[in-house]
């Protein structure tokens, strides 16, 4: 286990993928370096089409139950994710600052609180918009239904990797979709921490998956 754990600014980060509710290692790895001083922070499992296929299969298997879950129950889980993020703002800020080089005060005061806000906002939105399909229009009762689409692939850049990912993860999960995230190879560490937070919040296995790697090897498939 120790060989798959990197300690960054005192915070332990698992360097393996998160697929189907489990940590999955790859035979090949890549170095994650800090733009601050070019120090190697971690040796990260490098995904390929093999890991991508496994993550998509896990997401497809989890999709029917997640899509059928009452909106209020999905939203409650996403609010617990938000609470987990808020409890770890300092850890997330320290790790992402080292990983992508942005200012620590920006991560503490703005970026990481916004990460939590993204989950909470879309949890509330889902309950307000998806949880009440019936409406009255000029004396007629109408019903609007929203059907989850399935598995969503999310690829995000390095400059605000966690916040930009959750702009997409939040609404996808709130609407009943499952997610496969490929974080940027230049700053992948907080995505791994998010997987831990989601698991601790009770997000079912396979609903959220993280496959690390380069754009050519993991992003393209």
Report what the structure shows.
The chain is of the alpha/beta class and 221 residues long. The chain is 48% helix and 21% strand. It has helices spanning 49-68, 71-87, 89-100, 104-130, 161-174, 189-200, 215-219, and strands at residues 5-8, 11-14, 17-19, 22-24, 29-33, 40-45, 134-137, 140-143, 151-155, 178-182, 208-210. The strands form five sheets. It has a three-stranded parallel beta sheet with strand order 9-10-11. Helix 2 (71-87) crosses helix 6 (189-200), helix 3 (89-100) crosses helix 4 and helix 4 (104-130) packs parallel to helix 5.
Question: Topology of this protein?
Answer:
Elements: E1 5-8, E2 11-14, E3 17-19, E4 22-24, E5 29-33, E6 40-45, H1 49-68, H2 71-87, H3 89-100, H4 104-130, E7 134-137, E8 140-143, E9 151-155, H5 161-174, E10 178-182, H6 189-200, E11 208-210, H7 215-219
Parallel strand pairs: 9-10, 10-11
Antiparallel strand pairs: 1-2, 3-4, 5-6, 7-8
Helix pairs in contact: 2-4, 2-6, 3-4, 4-5
What is the strand content? 15-25%
Cα shape: globular
Q: SSE order in H/E notation?
A: EEEEEEHHHHEEEHEHEH
Distance between the termini: 28 Å
Number of strands: 11
Q: How would you characterize the largest beta sheet?
A: 3 strands, parallel
Can you give me a brief rundown of this structure?
With about 220 residues, the protein is α/β, with parallel strands linked by helices.
Please supply descriptive tags for the structure shown above.
11 strands; alpha/beta; 48% helix; single chain; two-stranded antiparallel sheet; 7 helices; 21% strand; 3-stranded parallel β-sheet; globular; 221 residues
């Amino acid at each position: 286990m120790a060989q798959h754990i990197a300690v960054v600014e005192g915070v332990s980060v698992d360097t393996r993928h998160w697929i189907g509710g489990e940590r999955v290692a790859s035979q090949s790895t890549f170095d994650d370096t800090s733009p601050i001083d070019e120090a190697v922070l971690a040796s990260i499992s490098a995904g390929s089409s093999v890991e991508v296929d496994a993550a998509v299969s896990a997401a497809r298997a989890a999709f029917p139950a997640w899509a059928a879950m009452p909106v209020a129950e999905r939203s409650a889980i996403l609010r617990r994710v938000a609470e987990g993020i808020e409890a770890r703002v300092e850890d997330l800020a320290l790790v992402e600052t080292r990983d992508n080089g942005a200012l620590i005060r920006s991560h503490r005061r703005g970026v990481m609180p916004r990460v939590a806000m993204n989950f909470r906002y879309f949890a509330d939105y889902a309950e307000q918009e998806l949880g009440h399909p019936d409406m009255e229009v000029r004396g007629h009762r109408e019903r609007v239904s929203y059907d989850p689409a399935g598995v969503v692939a999310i690829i995000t850049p390095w400059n605000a990797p966690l916040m930009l990912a959750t702009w997409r993860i939040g609404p996808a999960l709130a609407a009943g979709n499952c997610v496969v995230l490929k974080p940027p190879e230049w700053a992948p560490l907080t995505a791994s921490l998010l997987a831990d937070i989601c698991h601790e919040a009770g997000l079912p296995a396979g609903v959220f998956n993280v496959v690390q790697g380069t754009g050519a090897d993991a992003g393209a498939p």
